[in-house]
Amino acid sequence: MCCSWRGQGFWRRPERDVRNVDPGPQRASALVRKLDRESFNWRVFSVSASGFLASSYSLFATNVIKPALYFVYPPCGRLGQDAGLVIDQVTLVGTATGMLLAGHFADLWGRKKLYGLELAILLVATAGVMQTSEGFLIENPDGTYRHSIDFYAAITWWRFFLGIGIGAEYPLTAVIAAEWSSTKSRGRMLAGVYAMQAVARFLAPIIGLAALRIAGARSGLGPDSPDDDLSRLVIDLVWRVVTGIAMVPAAFAVVLRLTIPETPRYHADIRKDTIKAMRNYLRLYKRRPQPSDQIEAEPEPEPAADGIGREKRFLYGGAWKYLCKTRAGKDLAVISLLWLIMDVAWYGLSMESPSALSTLWHDPSRPIPTTAALSPASGLESLIEACPDSDDWQTDPGRPSIYRVLENNAVRSLLVVSIGSILGNLALVFVIDRFRRRWILMTSFVMLAFLFALTGGTLLGTVERQQPHLVTTVFFGIMHFFFTIGPKTVILVLAVELFPTVYRGTFYGVSACVGKFGAILIRGIIAQTKNGEHELAKRLLGFVPLMLFAALVSWFLPEVQHIPPIPGAGSRVDIEDGNLSDGATSGSEADERRQVRPRAAGWRAIIQKLENKTLEEIPPSTQLPLEFEGNSSDEPMAEVGTRPAESAGLVASPPKSPRSYIEYRTRALPLRLNPNGAVPQSPYSIVTFGKG
Predict the structure, then answer these.
(1) pTM of the entire structure?
(2) Domains, the chain, ranges and CATH?
């Protein structure tokens, strides 16, 4: 059998190849560096992307099936005045819960133990939604109907668990894709995985349109057919098919995810198990150890006794100490705030998008068709008349038939939303390693502010015109392009790059959970303001200051890339301040000022690929700040780690407590130094002391 449950056909099992591997910390460090030099791995991409496609499809299919649900099962006041609002809010709460829990448990128990579980939850919840019904139906003496099952309560129950599965997918997929990626391919890997959101937005209306036309052709239902019992029969089948299709990629991905090896970084950095880290590395890359695998790594001193020890890594106190004593706290606050702002604008643009697009697309000069009227033959006519919200499915001001509503929604979504989103993701795959993430984010936020102002102003200025808002519709598509090439993807990429392995899942989950509160907030605002022309225009204009503020906040993000010097170039110039340095390594090359390129490179320096920093270089070290013996001050003297000195908090000027001057010309090792003692000689750091 070519591929069994244990995954021999997809993942290699090299137990014999790792019997003589050195299990020491030096070996683990060398293994991580070797992983960083690998190429783009299509197996990791296929496993990550297929599951992310399934979860994204389940989320975006809501816009396709919601009018069908309202048509077949009128809410009739169930779940309050707005059943759709309750369902959406509960789904978003489930999503935020899944993000937070899965992120933390991925650090606590391991990535592999949860990977696949979130898709199993999604499969069960999707099956539950697809099979939900109203049960037995009886007629009351007053002509109304009573059901044995509350349809919308059941849908809400399953959508909550569906939200948990969707939310858990975010941190698990991001962490595993990032930790299995090489440094060179990490940006393209993450951008490609997140591009599945755009693919899902393309597939959902395509599948909905295909299911509608196939089912309609078989049943004799056409665009101008009356909205009678036959329509309800066909539409009921359509929404169940559209919902259930999500189970296909999910079932494919869940098998592979149950067999994917744990990431070597988790074993090496958290579990300190080099043997398992090497075994899993060889399973993925399917080759035997080479002589180069046995090279000696540089010595790594043991962590300081008062550092964040292994036994405290997963405690909230250890994480809080790390956030407070390093710049990681600022990074977490910045990325969480950006995610919150982004979700407010993104869900404000995309949630309830069929209604918004119908408002823009509507031609007031056309007469309202008469085929949308309820057929007198319908056995549910008395029920429909008794429901104050029986026409909630009617998202189009022209009031066409349900067939036309679903068809128009699908076509408009394809033309406006899907094309812009896919083009944005394709463009990002090309530019993510050629331009700095921070600059991509800032530029896209500024462009979105301009587009929101232009779209909202244009919509307000053309309200009285008896024509469709075609120009505004084009702006909608362009906004989706800039969202996907910018904040909708780049923020998710940065959230997994900014934090160390030991806390990567937890902090990603926290930032994602905070972002979802923005989605919950804007969904409530949409429910209150609806999608009329004036209301939609005012909402778009309200996003303008948010986008400008987000562009300003993006400036405080750390750099995760640097431009490599072109071979043969003599001088190098620091882009930040224009200071020249002649080849010699100095403190100005530290993390925040490593933006170095040849002076005469011209356009080549702008369009050439950047070099990603390793996942170990980007975040601050998990070691506590360096403290000197006899220092009574609570203020740390300097912060150290296996990162460039300046980004770790080391300064060239004397600290406030006059103890010593410290100058790091290259990498700083985690050393506990005594001002009066000898300085260990190391090729990786130059430390000079002078009395302050």
Answers:
(1) 0.78
(2) 15-282+311-554 (1.20.1250.20), 561-612 (no CATH)
